[in-house]
Amino acid sequence: MAHMTLAITGRTASEIADSVRGLVERGVLSPGEPLPPVRALAAKLGVNRNTAVAAYRHLAATGLVESRGRAGTVVSRPRTVAMEGFARDTVLRDVGSGNPDAHQIPSPARALQTIASRPVLYGEPVIDPALEAWAAPWLRADLAPGEMRLTITSGAADATERLLAQSLQRDDVVALEDPCFLASIHTVRIGGYRPVAVPVDEEGMTVDGLRAAIAEGARAIVYTPRAQNPTGASLTGGRAAALRDVLRDHPYLLVIEDDHFSLLSQQPYHSVIGPDHRRFAVVRSVSKFLGPDMGVAAVASDPDTAERLALRLTPGTTWVSHLLQRLAAAQLTDPEAQAQIAAAGRHYAARNARFAELLTAHGVPTTPGDGLSMWVGLPVPAREACEQLMRRGWLARPGDEFMLDAAGPSVHVRFTVHELDDPSLSRLAADVAAAVAAVQARDATRTGPVR
After folding, report:
1. Percent of the chain scoring above 90 in pLDDT
2. SS3 assignment for the chain
3. For the HTH gntR-type domain, which residue ranges apply (predicted)?
């Protein structure tokens, strides 16, 4: 421990954190190895104890170290990051995947026959004209009046990563919804930024939460205007207006709006981006309605953000394939595909509403929300309920995986049920109620009778 205290250098919290990070990267500090106590480190470096505390807090926020209370602070071991998608090698019925229904995605067969054209060469425009002609008016119609530029990226996660990278440095604070979309959590942590949780309620991101994140130094915000994943919440007009009021005094705060459900959403669109906000990006991918493999997202942003983003999509390096762009444009302008997309949105809403109705009838009051999945609150810890569901043949997703600032075990489970028929939905609802009852009975047995 003494040699480690001597190895760490720095006079500010940032310098101390960078020193520890360098020791980890060079292998001098190994996973599980304890860091010096705060008092000892502060005394050796000749800094205030609060400076050492702040350095350790920065490191913990980026996941490099973790606090173990009285046992001190240790270097984190590699963590498995939860990701979306089907669980591999399971015999259980997967109702936690978060995937769209493959039967609701328009077939690309007809569109593929129309996109053959000459090859695209280095130095040519990076945006396909047909996709630009469709996407630009689609995005402009929902933005406040002002200059807007279009960029095409390889999906929403790619857009978010590039937008943050062109604007932030390691350890910068990013405000994220809590609970949060798994890809956003992963992107922020991999980028070395510090996530700050902004609670989400039934009307979306909370006003007090946004104020607190800004006070904590947030330089960017990533949020969902509707069909928030995992909660299904959508911003109301009143909430969006209140959030715009908060942001009015911070026009250069980068606001990234991930409108992932766009064409499928059954809720009106409300944005927190006001007419005078200077740094913004609205991201709409096609993955939920044309399929995750399409890898195309349209990004509308202010001119400065667009220019920075374009530099990270320079022709000859990382532009989005024009074949994918043409395929997306061909489907998005096809009346038959448009009708199927609209029908898919109604299908997801109807299946979720039916499951909410069945759960409520079984004593688990549920509101469906909007989106591919449902956020179901239970009177018992989610992980324990999911363990009971596994015994009944179901694989669900506990809410703990989506939490940034959990004060305790989550009591929510995310279900993806739109592929289930009515008998299967009924059985799942009954099994959820049985799982809750089993956990409650076990807890009662452990506690014993009250005397």
Report:
1. 72
2. CHHHHHHCCCCCHHHHHHHHHHHHHCCCCCCCCECCCHHHHHHHHCCCHHHHHHHHHHHHHCCCEEECHHHCEEECCCCCCCCCCCCCCCCCEECCCCCCCHHHCCCCHHHHCCCCCCCCCCCCCCCCHHHHHHHHHHHHCCCCCCCCEEEEECCHHHHHHHHHHCCCCCCCEEEEEECCCHHHHHHHHHCCCEEEEEEEECCEECHHHHHHHHHCCEEEEEECCCCCCCCCCCCCHHHHHHHHHHHCCCCCCEEEEECCCHHHCCCCCCCCCCCCCCCEEEEEECHHHHCHHHCCEEEEECHHHHHHHHHCCCCCCCCCCHHHHHHHHHHHCCHHHHHHHHHHHHHHHHHHHHHHHHHHHCCCCCCCCCCCCEEEECCCCHHHHHHHHHHCCEECEEHHHHCCCCCCCCCEEEECCCCCCHHHHHHHHHHHHHHHHHHHHHHHHHHCCCC
3. 10-78
Average pLDDT over residues 125-145: 93
Given 75, 107, 131, which residue is the final one in a domain? 75
The overall average pLDDT reported for the chain is 91
Res. 225 pLDDT band, cuts 50 70 90: very high
CATH number of the CATH domain containing 320: 3.40.640.10
**Number of domains into which the chain is organized:** 3
Q: Mention every residue, 6+ apart, whose C-beta is less than 8 A from residue 81.
A: 182, 185, 186, 189
What is the reported pLDDT for 114?
A: 86
What range does the domain containing 63 cover? 2-75
Most confidently predicted of 51-65, 143-157, 178-192, 328-342: 328-342
Q: pLDDT digits over 155-204, tens only?
A: 999 999 999 999 998 879 999 999 999 999 989 988 888 899 999 999 99
Residue 326 sits in the same domain as residue 341: no
Predicted local confidence at residue 451, as pLDDT? 46
Mean local confidence (pLDDT), 113-118? 82
Question: In degrees, to the nearest 5, what angle opens at C-alpha 71 toward C-alphas 65 and 75?
Answer: 20
Domain boundary among 332, 348, 373: 332
Measure the CA–CA gap between 213 and 388, rounded to whole angstroms.
37
Asked if 322 and 349 sit in the same domain, the reply is: no
Q: 354 and 325, same structural domain?
A: no
Residue reference for tokens 């991918």: 285
Residues 22 and 49 in one domain: yes
Mark whether 364 and 250 lie in a shared domain. Answer: no
